[in-house]
Design brief:
alpha/beta, D-Maltodextrin-Binding Protein, domain 2, 6-stranded mixed β-sheet, 19 helices, 10 strands, about 45% helix, about 10% strand
Length: about 425
Amino acid sequence: MRHLYKKITAFLLCALLVFLCACKPASSLKKEPVTEHKVTIEVNTMYGGDEYGKVFYDAVKEWEKETGYSVSLSSSTSDEAYKNRILMDFQTGAEPDVLFYFNGVDSNPLVANKRVISLDEIRKVYPEYAINMKVGMMKPSSYDGKIYAVPVNGYWEALYCNLTVLTKLGLKVPDENTTWEEFMDMCDTIKNAGKTPIAASLAEIPHYWFEYCIYNHQTPESHAVVPEFLVDNMAQAWVSGLYDIKDMYDKGYFPENTLYISDEESKAMFLSNEAAFLLEGSWYASTVNERVNSANFVVTYVPGTETRKSTDIISGLSTGYYITKKAWDDEEKREAAVRFVEYMTANEIVSKLSKINATALKSGAEATENLSSFMESALNMVEGATGYSEAVQDFVPGNCRAPIFENMQGLMQGTSSIEDAVREVITLKKQKDE
């Protein structure tokens, strides 16, 4: 009897073991391959003309591999045409699921028409969304005060210098002590030597010089304030700054065809030692670092005036990832869109993209190791800055900027009035706000 009992007990134990193994999740027995979600999200970014693109594209591929989701990617250069195209896409129902875009007034139409989802609403479903970011560093919408965009990295705008051109002419790189008048004298020397002092396309990208030339008549505290009347101090700074650009144009400090040349053509002049200076954003640093011998280039401050110190720079966090209502209302795409933004704004990816820029991360690795001398000059420029202001253009809707940005030919050639252009911008902005 005891022998029979042992046999029955052994049989029952074996049967129980087989049952438990059958019920055990497959994942605990062996590692399953990534589930093929067969969901594709549309993502639109500004990495098309951005030199951090490789980091972004590699991250997208890795995310697809890890999750099984697919990304239909569209990337463009962040010019005025891009901004207009994005707004048109939203108006016609052709918006993407995830958008990397500006978080200033350019995004107000998206917020006003409820086409993007706020951080608060997303966190009701995904409580840990963007918790690695400092709330105070995430810019709220000027339309309703809510946060919509999760930032990646900040930006700065500064003066890129071609050492080959300057050294041959016996000129030193402008530094924190160089005045605007001394900078103009340098430009005159360069022009007389047969080189182009400043590489710029006033036809396509006039806003960098617009920002710094009016900044020269302001302070970090007042620069990002949009004028309300032509007679106020802000408007007069705009007028004076535009006349300074016209002065440089009249003196031949820009390329001869600056009113027609493309941005890429003007940059090619700088990289090929035909031009000495280029005023650009931090996103262009990697291009210089990768396409040419970066040891022949440095980044420094835009020479200032008695009003603006040279070390007062334009810097901020102006872009971020939006999740659109189109994706949010689609249960499968909602999950994919949230996971995509979380991946792209994780500490590791943001740190890779930031390098010499500020971030909104609570904590993240500083990617400052093994920097070239060129990248070190950019980092030193940022670390030595004494004042900061966001770009004022980010507070002016695109169509309101048109009297200046789309009319540089008339303003430079004197066929259009600078005062009238500033007045029209103010009028259009007021009408937009009403």
